Amino acid sequence: MAADTSPDDDVPSGAPAVRVRAFTLTSGRTTPRVDLPVEATLRRLGAATAGPVESHLTRILEVCDRRSVAEVSALVAMPIGVVRVLLADLVELGQVRVQTTIQEDSSFAERRELIERTLRGLRTL
Amino acid sequence: MDYARSSDQRTAASTKIVVAGGFGVGKTTLVGTVSEIMPLRTEALVTNQSEGIDDLAAVPSKGTTTVAMDFGRITLGEDLVLYLFGTPGQRRFWFMWDDLCLGAIGAIVLVDTERLDEAFSPLDYFEQRGLPFIVAVNQFEDAATYPLEDVAAALALSPGVPVIRIDARRRESVKEALVRVTEFSLERLSAAVGA
């Protein structure tokens, strides 16, 4: 990723060609097989569960524990869409677990519990 | 109805609040003021044919660009992390917002009173999607101070939408904005189910 961190520089930066090529790591796949919201946090599972993984997956494995999909994308400098596909592969390989977030089908009770917990946390910051 | 936590209730480990607003209005400043990490930047690919594409293998770089999103993280106790995502306000980024807003607690629309028009697009979007939002005027030192009622009127806000004034550089001020949007989200949720 470009080392450009000027505040609020929202708009396109860097060399797009390099980033498009990133989808070659996913064999062109852009749709992950596992639901992965940007804020979903990940847990790395025991290494004993599976054999060796490819090197670009190793980078993701190394940084993903207790971090979100967005953090992994930033830390390995890959676009979020690419990271999603690769993380989904790691989930299917039994290397990574996705922790719960609020989804479209979440119940009222689940939503309320989360919002209340967030509120308590924010008030004690 | 009994809302006590049942064994099949899934307890979320993370959540998010979206910070939207025009270019340079202070989104990244706001995120950085309360984040426990230096704001990180992630990028999404944008193609001119972003609708209905599932296979980019053969798509050349022409017509493809990236859009950056800065975000921060706040740990709220042992079992909950809140992410703040700053997102560009322009309509051409709406494709990204569906993804960002799904499952979000709510949004803060950050406005600069000198450039109120930049808030229209995010306001339209959040209204359409039914995502609870508040408007936070980022009070720049050299800018005139307008009454908040006037800001609400100029933005044609629906009655009940909270409008507050903040200083995105001050932690307490940003914290107050986060508390306010979360409270508002809870009020809206309760109203929606008539609880």
UniProtKB/TrEMBL annotation, chain A:
InterPro entries: DUF742 (IPR007995)
Pfam families associated with the record: DUF742
Name of the protein: DUF742 domain-containing protein
Organism listed in the record: Nocardioides endophyticus
TrEMBL record, chain B:
The UniProt record lists the keyword Nucleotide-binding: yes
Family annotation (SUPFAM superfamilies): P-loop containing nucleoside triphosphate hydrolases
UniProt keyword annotations, A-Z: GTP-binding, Hydrolase, Nucleotide-binding
Highest taxon in the source lineage: Bacteria
Keyword DNA repair: no
InterPro entries with a match to the protein in the record: Gliding_Motility_GTPase, Gpn, P-loop_NTPase
Family (UniProt): Belongs to the GPN-loop GTPase family.
The protein's name: ATP/GTP-binding protein
